[in-house]
Amino acid sequence: MPTENALKARSNNSCELCTSPDNLSVFSVPPTSDLSAQQSIYLCNNCLEQVEGTKALDVNHMRCLTDAMWNQEPAVQVMAYRLLHKLSAESWAQDALDMIYLEDAVKTWAEQGIAAAEREGPTRDSNGTELQDGDNVTLIKDLKVKGSSLVAKQGTAVRRISLDHENAKHIEGKVGPTQIVIITDFVKKMPEKE
């Protein structure tokens, strides 16, 4: 309760991203938070659902970030930076990212959350198709295998891959007799046989 009271006072009882006064709650900014007001923000339900990913990002609603990014509170700056990063395909969000200034420690905190979210996300091939354990993939370019003279050629099938649950950008599979780690940017999922 002390954290919520501190956030109410700090935010003037409004959402720290969009300034809505409705349905407010405390959100602890990941990846690590001590649940203090310094590492938490006060969000309306609409922003909270978008931050947590239970609701798709509403591009028009998130234009509020162009104001929120100038907030003096590091936790608010971190969340604004992360959301702008997710929306970076939008020209206004990219412009905001180009303008935002974060202290080094705050930027590190913001980028840790982005990296953690990427690790937790689904593993996808070069076309954005989600991969699962046991899928078959094809290499889309020649790859030199570190620590050996082996070059895995473009078009090589890698069957029954294993996902790396620590890093969504890595999969494991056999190329010939050798088990290797492959970056997902260099593979595409093979179609299922019918």
Structure description:
- Strand 7 (162-163) and strand 8 (170-175) form a beta hairpin.
- The mean pLDDT is 87.
- The strands form 4 sheets. The protein has a 3-stranded antiparallel beta sheet, with no helix packed on it. Strands 7-8-9 form a 3-stranded antiparallel beta sheet, with no helix packed on it.
- The termini are far apart.
- It is built from 6 helices and 10 strands, in the order αββαααααββββββββ.
- The longest helix has 17 residues, at 104-120.
- The radius of gyration is 21 Å and the shape is elongated.
- It has helices at residues 2-11, 45-52, 65-68, 74-86, 91-99, 104-120; strands at residues 24-28, 40-44, 137-139, 143-144, 151-152, 157-158, 162-163, 170-175, 178-183, 187-189.
- The protein has 194 residues and is an alpha+beta fold.
- Helices cover 31% and strands 19% of the residues.
As a whole number of angstroms, the C-alpha radius of gyration is 21 Å
Mean pLDDT: 87
* Strands ordered across the widest β-sheet: 6-3-10
How many strand segments? 10
The main pleated sheet reads as: 3 strands, antiparallel
The H/E string reads HEEHHHHHEEEEEEEE
Number of H/I helices: 6
Quote the distance from N terminus to C terminus.
57 Å
Strand content: 15-25%
Helix content: 25-40%
Category from helices, strands and their pairing: alpha+beta
Spans of at least 5 consecutive residues whose pLDDT stays below 50 are none
3D shape: elongated
